[in-house]
Amino acid sequence: MAERLQDVPLDMRRFIDTPVAKGFGAGYRTGLMAGAAIGAVMGLILVALGASGTAGVALGTLVVLVNGAVLTARYRSHASTPLAVNLNHPFMGDEPMGPARVLVRMSDGSWVDPGSHRVRIAKDELMGGLSLIQDTDEYPVIGHFHKAADKTPLIARHLALINQAIALRDAVNEVPDPIDEAREREALDSGLLARSWLEDEEGIEVESPLVSFFRQKE
Prior knowledge:
alpha+beta, 2 domains, 5-stranded antiparallel sheet, 3-stranded antiparallel sheet
């Protein structure tokens, strides 16, 4: 297994603290305000139709609470992304001044370098849950990644972000692309190079850093 660090080094930032993730926070706040406005309007409409003020307040409060719960769960899913990058990584937004670096958090809270290949998950028959492995023909194990028995939408999202971070790291470090077989497997798993990882986030118009990076190189 890879060498483990107990905490993120001082020159690195967790994904949620990177500039590219700021759109999540802005979208979260905007969504909360929109939910509050919709709840108030729905409550007033209910009162205008003849319901009591108490019923109107109850409906408005329910709308606000449900909307807040959904948005908070979504925001926490991004905040929990087990990924950190250094200041030279494109997720930080500045022109790199040196080699880019990526770390991934394992299930025990330690941080490891994922290595020189993209990653995927496999069931851990010994410990249960899922292990993070390098996407090569040998599938070397990086470490125990998650206690879930199967891949969930949240885990799939985390893997897409991790693999995008690795792709951008390699672009900065001018590392050649992986072999064709690995690229084909990656396309099947996440469609990483075919679409923005933000395409399913309504109300957040942020271009994929992967697209932006290579567009600057043209």
